[in-house]
Specification:
Blueprint (H helix, E strand, L loop, with lengths): L1 H23 L5 H16 L2 H7 L5 E3 L2 E3 L10 H23 L7 H30 L2
Antiparallel strand pairs: 1-2
Helix pairs in contact: 2-4, 4-5
């Protein structure tokens, strides 16, 4: 019985050592690291940290209409923050699609379409973010 316990303990230490080496030598995909950085950036720029710390109201229903952007610069609604994050992601997706259009040099029609869709998403995301910011000044 002593030999089997000793063998299991040494086998466990060997497995833990191999697992430790595997964790130290792990190299994540550059694409995944980039996407994680972009997601964190969009979250922070959209006011996600403020949303987590203060737990703001979702939106107001005032005068027969739904107000999703708080009319002051010092506070924000949760829905407005989420919308800004979505619009930022839309703009970034536009950048990615425009970049991907360079891979279709052999097919100019597809490259032009991808570039057009990417630029359209980028401009739409920018306009929607600006509209959200301008609605804070027009109260």
């Amino acid at each position: 019985m002593g030999k089997s316990v000793n063998k299991q303990v040494s086998s466990l230490s060997f497995r833990l050592q191999k697992l430790y080496e595997r964790i130290l030598n792990y190299k994540p995909s550059l694409f995944l690291v980039g996407m994680a950085i972009v997601a964190v950036s969009i979250f922070l720029l959209g006011g996600g940290l403020y949303d987590l710390l203060t737990q703001p109201d979702q939106a107001w229903y005032y005068g027969g209409r739904l107000i999703v952007f708080y009319p002051s610069l010092t506070e924000q609604f949760l829905v407005g923050s989420i919308l800004i994050m979505i619009f930022g992601a839309m703009g970034f997706t536009g950048f990615l699609i425009a970049y991907q259009s360079t891979k279709y040099a052999y097919n100019p029609r597809q490259a032009y379409r991808s570039l057009l869709v990417g630029c359209a998403l980028l401009v739409i995301g920018y306009i929607l973010i600006e509209n959200g910011l301008l609605s804070k000044f027009s109260f």
